[in-house]
Amino acid sequence: MNTKALCAVITPVLAVGGFLLWPHSSKSAAPAIALEAPVPVAAAATPVPIPAQIEFVELQAGVEQGLLKAKFSGNGRDKVRATLTNTGAAPLKVQIDAGQVLESGKNAVVVVREAMVEIAVGKTSEAQLQTVATRSTNKVSEAAYTLSYTRAPRLDGILAYAQKHLELSIGALQTAALALCENLPLSAVAKFTPATGELPSRFNTDGFRVETNDIIAALNALRQMHVEESSVAMTIDPQLKIEAMIEPLSRAAAMQYYGITSEKEWDFWKAELLSGAPATRHYALYGIARFYPEIALEMLPKWAREPKTNAVYRLAALQALADTQRMEALPILRQLTDELGASSELGRAARGAADYLDQRLTQIATRQTAVAFRSSKMLSKF
Fold first, then answer.
1. Which residues of the chain have pLDDT under 50?
2. 159, 229, 272, 322: which has the fewest C-beta neighbours closer than 10 Å?
3. Strands 55-58 and 92-96
4. pLDDT per residue over 83-104, tens digit each?
5. Are the beta carbons of 274 and 288 closer than 8 angstroms?
6. Alpha carbon distance 94, 57 (integer Å)
7. Exposed, middle or buried: residue 79 (CB in 10 Å: 0-12, 13-18, 19+)?
8. 115 pairs with which residues across the strands?
9. Rounded distance, CA 160 to CA 72, Å?
10. What is the Cα–Cα distance from 21 to 37, expressed in whole angstroms?
């Protein structure tokens, strides 16, 4: 093949607009050949991370499976602080069940209200647990606690009740728990002094004494759980009824528990005063003063002046006059101080009651003035 022919064979084609064209020659041109446009190569997509699935685990099971590290610190009575660390590979939702027992030496407490804690991987969270002691011998002081496999079946009923009645105070729950576990007498849990004097006890139960309204709430809970009342020792003491009726914070609950209607309340106080337990009959004078002050202002000075009346009742009448918290009682007490003799026991009691009432009336007036001032300032903003 000559040089001119070889060049014709290897002459490059010209690309125009995506078509291949042969070069012009004196002869007819070769037909155009269509080519497909090149497909661009897509960049590799960035993978979207899939969040780890939250795992649900019960506290004790999580510790056993190595998903959790747990430390506990409690006061032996109503609080345990749980410090939980997620050592697993996924976020955890930790369930802390009511009924979980924790121990520290001879101390034992039970979680009374369930709790839930969410913990991210490698993170630590704290939970404040509500607990009750199962033993009145618990030392009420801060200490380290550990999870226990033991259970407190006697408390199953009050634990179930607590989940449905969030209004029940921890003091009431504790009192009900000790009634079920140890059947303690009223003198072991009440803050008021027994009228018959302190009963001897092997153990100091001061850490478990509660207000009277907590005791009534505990007894009401036990009644609703159908616990036989005659088997609960603290219901036997007659002092509880009148103490609960005297105390303004527990009066309404006591009336409901003992079935005393508003129409029958005066009959209750009258019966207590005339035929109540000898050790607490004079308590009725305080109830009358607090809830029937108009009657008390007329009745109590007569009791205080009557020389044939037992001195216990005369002293109670003087002190009860101050409980009326009425301004009208102040001059009566001042007069009784003079009548009974300022240096006599009754005269000193009258003067002490007058001074107390004077102080209380001043406090009430100061509080009312402060409330009125705040209210006027709020109204001035509008």
1. 1-33
2. 229
3. parallel
4. 999 999 999 999 999 999 999 9
5. no
6. 5
7. middle
8. 96
9. 24
10. 16
